[in-house]
Amino acid sequence: MTAQLTRKQMRTVWAETVVESLDADPRLVVLTADISSWFFWEAKKEHPDRVVNLGIREQAMIDIAGGFALAGMRPMVHTYGPFLIERPFEQIKIGLGHQDVGAVLVSVGASYDDPSWGRTHQAPGDVALLDTLPGWTVHVPGHEDEVAPLLRQAIAGDGRVYVRLSERANSEAVPVSDGFTVLRRGSRGVVLAVGPVLDQVLAATETLDVTVLYTSTIRPFDHAGLRDAVAGARPDVVLVEPYLRGTSAFEVGEALADVPHRLRSFGTWRDREARVYGTAEEHDRLLGVDAESLAASIGDFIS
Predict the structure, then answer these.
(1) Domain Transketolase-like pyrimidine-binding, which positions (predicted)?
(2) Residues ≥6 apart with Cβ < 8 Å to 97
(3) How high is the pLDDT of residue 5?
(4) What's the CA gap between 33 and 37, in Å, rounded?
(5) How many other CB atoms sit within 10 Å of the CB of residue 285?
(6) Sheet containing 262-268, strands listed edge to edge, beginning at the edge strand earlier in sequence
């Protein structure tokens, strides 16, 4: 019997990649807020001035990242999504954006990876919130093998980058690219899957005559890729994102501004909260983004 390899979590791949990059890139500085700081205990011995755990001081952490960036360093900032994007949003807006300096923000927790922590550890509106600020690149890897190339690209640059890690992952990786990857061709519509919802989308559309697009980079949005896909299919677009429903709807509208089309969006609710615990898979069913629910909804939409 062949032994099955144990897959690493995205967060583990992130930490390993960052430790390697600390050795290779003297610009890189890592800022944590207790969360995941244990990954860097050994690296801190080698780079005491470039591995800093600030405790639960997230607003200060962002402004300190801005200071490092102004000094020519490349700050990477990490904690749970709500503590990284929502709590210090003013500092992101001013300390990074208004000062026009770059940083790499890396979150864990996604929208509801571990619901037992409750609403305080959930940030389904994080990408939508960053959409109110200019100049952000947003990566949403769907597999652990997509994490390292996205991170290395982000570390090597100077811009403002958000990497949204998840504890959930697709069964297979898709090669990282700047735009959409076509995984299936069809004629009755286009379904766009972002990051770790791809397995559900592929299962849901298995018997449907639709084109399936995938991306691990949702900002900037690949307008040309969507237009190319719609040109070969009926202009009905289904958007499945692992965060707030309709977050990229305005981008679809921009891409197809001169193309009459219909759009259906799936993701977390906008008009109410899921005030329950349970498992992430139970939240999928509640929100209608599990494979069975998506199959029924997408089938009704394209028919």
Answers:
(1) 8-173
(2) 133, 134, 135, 160
(3) 61
(4) 7
(5) 14
(6) 181-184, 211-215, 190-194, 236-244, 262-268
Q: How many CA atoms lie within 13 A of 235 on its CB side?
A: 13
pLDDT at residue number 246:
98
Q: What mean pLDDT do residues 28-38 have?
A: 97
Query: Same topology for domains 10-164 and 181-302, yes or no?
Result: yes
pLDDT tens-place string over residues 216-255: 999 999 999 999 999 988 999 999 999 999 999 999 999 9
For domain 10-164, the CATH architecture is 3-Layer(aba) Sandwich (3.40)
* Residue 3 pLDDT greater than 90, yes or no: no
> What's the pTM?
0.96
Instruction: Give the CA radius of gyration of the chain.
Output: 19
- Per domain, the residue ranges of the chain are 10-164, 181-302
The mean pLDDT value for 149-154 works out to 98
Q: How far apart are CA 143 and CA 130, in angstroms?
A: 23
288 φ/ψ sector (left φ>0, alpha ψ -120 to 50, else beta): left
pLDDT score recorded for residue 1: 34
Fold of 181-302: Rossmann fold (3.40.50)
